[in-house]
Amino acid sequence: MLGLMQDKPLLVSSLLVHAERFHPESEIVSCTCEGPVVRLSYRTMAERVRRLARALVSLGVTPGDRVATMAWNTHRHMELYFAVSGIGAVLHTVNPRLFPEQIEYILNHAESRALFFDITFASAVANLRDKLPAVENMIALTDAEHAAGMPESALIYEELLAEQSAEPYNWPQFDERTASSLCYTSGTTGNPKGVLYSHRSTVLHSSMACQVDGLQLNRRDTTLLAVPLFHVNAWGIPYASALCGAGLVLPGPKLDGKSLFDLAVAERCTFSLGVPTVWLGFLKYIDEDADADPAMLSLERVMIGGSAAPRAIIKTFDEMGVHTIQAWGMTETSPVATVCNLLPRHAELAGEGKYDVQVLQGRPVYGVDIRVVNDDGEALPFDGETPGDLQVRGPWVTSGYFRGEGGDVLDRDGWFSTGDVATIDPDGYVRITDRSKDVIKSGGEWISSIDLENAAVSHPAVVEAAVIGRPHPKWQERPLLIVVGKDGAEVTKDAILDHLKPLVASWWLPDDVVFVDDLPHTATGKLQKMKLREQFKDYELPA
Amino acid sequence: MLGLMQDKPLLVSSLLVHAERFHPESEIVSCTCEGPVVRLSYRTMAERVRRLARALVSLGVTPGDRVATMAWNTHRHMELYFAVSGIGAVLHTVNPRLFPEQIEYILNHAESRALFFDITFASAVANLRDKLPAVENMIALTDAEHAAGMPESALIYEELLAEQSAEPYNWPQFDERTASSLCYTSGTTGNPKGVLYSHRSTVLHSSMACQVDGLQLNRRDTTLLAVPLFHVNAWGIPYASALCGAGLVLPGPKLDGKSLFDLAVAERCTFSLGVPTVWLGFLKYIDEDADADPAMLSLERVMIGGSAAPRAIIKTFDEMGVHTIQAWGMTETSPVATVCNLLPRHAELAGEGKYDVQVLQGRPVYGVDIRVVNDDGEALPFDGETPGDLQVRGPWVTSGYFRGEGGDVLDRDGWFSTGDVATIDPDGYVRITDRSKDVIKSGGEWISSIDLENAAVSHPAVVEAAVIGRPHPKWQERPLLIVVGKDGAEVTKDAILDHLKPLVASWWLPDDVVFVDDLPHTATGKLQKMKLREQFKDYELPA
Ligand SMILES: Nc1ncnc2c1ncn2[C@@H]1O[C@H](COP(=O)(O)OP(=O)(O)OP(=O)(O)O)[C@@H](O)[C@H]1O
Ligand SMILES: Nc1ncnc2c1ncn2[C@@H]1O[C@H](COP(=O)(O)OP(=O)(O)OP(=O)(O)O)[C@@H](O)[C@H]1O
Ligand SMILES: [Mg+2]
Ligand SMILES: [Mg+2]
Question: Any idea of its EC number (chains A, B) (predicted)?
């Protein structure tokens, strides 16, 4: 027997409709590639989104079509979020920092029919033009005034909008499981793979983001979106902001420390999200610039994800009165799966004791189930000690990659293997100890490369560190620590090993430490160990 | 094109499964009808729920069957919430305070096949026994020790559980639109009507309750559940608590001021919910008892709904450092539809200015759309001034009553008419001015009976007030104010009218004031104006 409740699909369009009706004055502040800062409200944005929806339809975009973007965090990019999914098409955000060949691969793999791009990418797009047979329309995200230098065939976003009406739009109502957006994984461990979100998964994930035990996003927030709109839907924040009416500040192309700091101060941002690299830049700027006083900030909390949140960042923020929320997730999990919120019994913790909890990747929010398994697929205990392959399932977890890449990715109980190695403690806190491909197997036991890296960067003269396994005649594999030192700081292998000794088990101590000028990163700022292993393939550990 | 996200139905069973896995230690503290206080965790409750699920199946309960309860707020009643819905049957909570004929009507209308009852209702149930042809099993919510005095044929809850295994249970997975529970309206304006919730509506509503802009329920809460489990699923809190792992304190049969106060103090409750009547009793106890010091409370916020939250309650709580969240809703809306949270621009408000906002019924949360319409069904502006019929729609709003009562209740755009008269302001704040059946039409203009009642109870000597319309030769209808005075206080008609003069428009002033010892209430504590109009049907206004 079915219940007698209204049959309302959870659609992306309903988020903006709600925001326009009930949060019309909440503000979206956008830096642009052209320079000026643009201020909109959900009311004015909703009007523009309706124009855009009509423009898309008039360009021949139909339900299911992929519409690609190569764009920074601006209001126009956000408008595409709502208009493209709103008409039933699929928003395909492409990371413009990828290599041209990767971009070409992804756009062709997705068969995107239209490509919206920021003017900063005009020449990149012009070069790609002939290699993208599926793309019928290229639209520059700008106005007539700034159209000079755009590829000849490109349409101009603001012109398209101006041609259309902002009148009420009958957003189509359809099955909430319909695809809404497409995002490719970062390509840290191989070729990027497409994850196809649905309206349902997007709305459920947004609802979680607004929960107290989620990301606490709420009507009183003004969020500085330091995570790109092309990085897993900016962690769902554009949708969740519309859901609860939170204000949004979009930094445009500039994610450097000074730009973010100035924006956070000027717009009194209360919340922000980004990968560790972004926060390193932010905190470095505050540290080094005499004018940048953290007391000028209104920040209450920052969310860090994408890679492990370094303890040093958590501590520095804490000392500034800013609470760090670490979260773990993947492109495949929309992305937020676990969030490191504190339990009642942590209420009295302060300083190091609190950081001990905050460095964990967090606990699953409702909607996400997790477990760790051994090589035989048997579930391991939640004891905080036994590492295993982390698996996940739930309504915003992928059931397979776009166009069948990678084949069947779920086991028969619906578990998705994340490729991360983790422990889970009795409260459900996850600790990611490694990627399964990066784990170092020494004499049959596992050494966590992440733990070693964290210990290394806690040395004041170390900026970044990477640990990879190298073949060893007796132990099969032993760790090699590769370090980027601070400018001007003198530091030796022995100093670093001495620093590590009290922090890790003695048999974890790296067999060697090498110094480099920089480490290879992916387009989303992650350590590219694949490349590092390649670089060091001829290196031999000291005997 | 469908997205590639996992197909996980939103089921009530998944809430408890999540709580057991990730909040195993959160506590449920339950007063019982037998006397002792019982303490469980989600882990132990989940074990008992599995036993109960097996017991239900062994009693022959099948998917879709209604299973009725007549019970207070105890752990056993909460276990039924999860077990009954978990196996795909429908939990039908009956308000035991209704008249026996109403209970009989409702149980027969629902055709409930089993009836679980608290020992306090043993004789009521025994008397009903022969009038309930559909009921096959009656189960006393107690153990063998307390089985004396139970109807002969009654089974004993704890015995049933003891016979079953607590082993892992394969909760059936089914369409999330399946009916999960059934609750009848309060019967304030006519016969109670059945509202049939689904698993989907229940989980979506729970998710809202955990949002910052919802009820802010979270893992750090210990909630004193002062709203009965038979009153619209206790406003969804049992489900939402499992979702986020909040602790729950169940007061059993005692909802008097002292019992609630003692419990809130002993269990350090941070949150509580109830109708205004309950809070009046609670605050009266604190006011009158020298031992009851509000400083002993850990309460951070209370939610008030079911009837308008009186300003005096909001103020008294505020002075105790407790924040009041008013919410508006109906049995038909699961029930929470609008929540009175403050906007950023209210941040600086304190005292009366803040109460001016808190007395409003709140703004819709995402998932709920509202509007007010005139008699022709045309939408009225959100101007905070123009009253109209309040309509609502969304995934946790009813699409029709159980067994077709009342026929088609939605208009062609899916709007449900609430029977409430309201204004909506530009921010979306709803102000309920009346029930449409209670509105007083004087010379073509509407007088709000609720506003007049609120103004009257702000007089220190007035305990409760009701306003009804009486026929008038010139103005069609004029207001009559009916007042319950404070014990021992001397107060006259003129004193009350003088008090009202500065508070309401002069043409709203009641034509007469009558004093009574008490006013008629429904089983959920609401003013029964239907009955009052009946009582005063021969009364004539002074010329
Ligand atoms: N808080 C965190 N702590 C540690 N690692 C994290 C955290 N958040 C995310 N990660 C890592 O990022 C991964 C998800 O990243 P993403 O989906 O962007 O692509 P990728 O895994 O880096 O690339 P690819 O799957 O293409 O190799 C996780 O599997 C995990 O390894
Ligand atoms: N915060 C509030 N302020 C004012 N009125 C409220 C509030 N919350 C609920 N109500 C009133 O309660 C009604 C819903 O109550 P409920 O569903 O329990 O049954 P009822 O309407 O009293 O009974 P019936 O529908 O059987 O006549 C609303 O329609 C509204 O009139
Ligand atoms: Mg990955
Ligand atoms: Mg009603």
Answer: 6.2.1.44
Provide the H-helix boundaries in A150-307: 157-162, 199-209, 237-244, 257-266, 276-288
Q: Print the SS3 string covering A386-421.
A: CCEEEEEECCCCECCCHHHCCCCCECCCCCEEEEEE
Contact A247, A237 (CB under 8 A): no
Contact call for A428 and B402, based on CB within 8 A: no
A226 touches chain B (CB under 8 A): no
d(CA A273, CA A411): 33
Task: State the nearest Cα–Cα gap between B136 and chain A, in angstroms.
Answer: 20
Contact A226, A273 (CB under 8 A): yes
Q: Which of A288, A385, A386, A441 is catalytic?
A: A441
- Write down the pLDDT at residue A529: 92
User: What is d(CA B519, CA B530) in angstroms, rounded to the nearest whole number?
Assistant: 12
The alpha carbon dihedral of A51, A52, A55, A61 has a sign of negative
Name the residue of chain A whose CA is nearest to B424's CA. A22
| Lookup: tokens for B314 | 């909001």
Encode pLDDT of A464-490 as tens digits.
999 999 999 999 999 999 999 988 888
Average pLDDT over residues A402-412: 94
pLDDT band at B140 (very low <50, low <70, confident <90, very high): very high
Which domains are seen in chain A, by residue range?
369-435 (2.30.38.10), 440-535 (3.30.300.30)
Of B416, B418, B417, B421, nearest in space to B445 by CA: B421
Residue B289: helix, strand or coil by DSSP? coil
Residue A353 sits at φ, ψ, to 5 deg, of: -60, -40
What tens digit of pLDDT does each residue of A327-344 get?
999 999 999 999 999 999
Residue type, A209: A
Surface of B (86-145) touching A: CB under 8 A:
90
Residues lying with their CB under 5 A of ligand 4, a single-atom ion? B 185
Model confidence pLDDT, tens digit, residues A81-124: 999 999 999 999 999 999 899 999 999 999 999 999 999 999 99
Tokens of A322: 């800013």
Atom of ligand 2 nearest to the CA of B435: 31
Q: Is B5 on the interface with A (CB under 8 A)?
A: yes
Higher pLDDT, B441 or A322: A322
Q: For residues B187, B190, B191 and B195, what is the CA-based torsion angle, rounded to 10 degrees?
A: -60
Q: Is the ipTM of this complex over 0.90?
A: yes
Q: Which A residues in the span 17-46 are in contact with B, Cβ-Cβ below 8 Å? A: 17-18, 21-25
Q: CA A296 from chain center: how many Å? A: 27
Q: What is the pLDDT of residues B374-398, one digit of tens each?
A: 999 999 999 999 999 999 999 999 9
Helix ranges (H only) for A23-64 are 42-58
Centroid of chain to Cα B225: 11
Handedness of CA B96, B99, B102, B107 (dihedral sign): positive
Of A336, A340, A387, residue with least CA distance to A359: A340
> Residue B11: phi, psi to the nearest 5?
-115, 150
Contact of B2 with chain A, judged by CB distance below 8 Å, is answered with yes
Q: Which of A1, A5, A62, A360 to mutate to test the interface with B (most CBs of B within 10 A)?
A: A5
Sheet of A137-140, strand order? A155-156, A137-140, A114-117, A66-70, A90-93, A179-184, A194-198
Q: Which of B209-213, B474-478, B505-509 has the highest mean pLDDT?
A: B209-213
User: Is pLDDT of B357 > 90?
Assistant: yes
Closest residue of chain B to A15, computed from CA coordinates: B366
DSSP B379: B
Ligand 1 atom with minimal separation from the A435 CA: 31
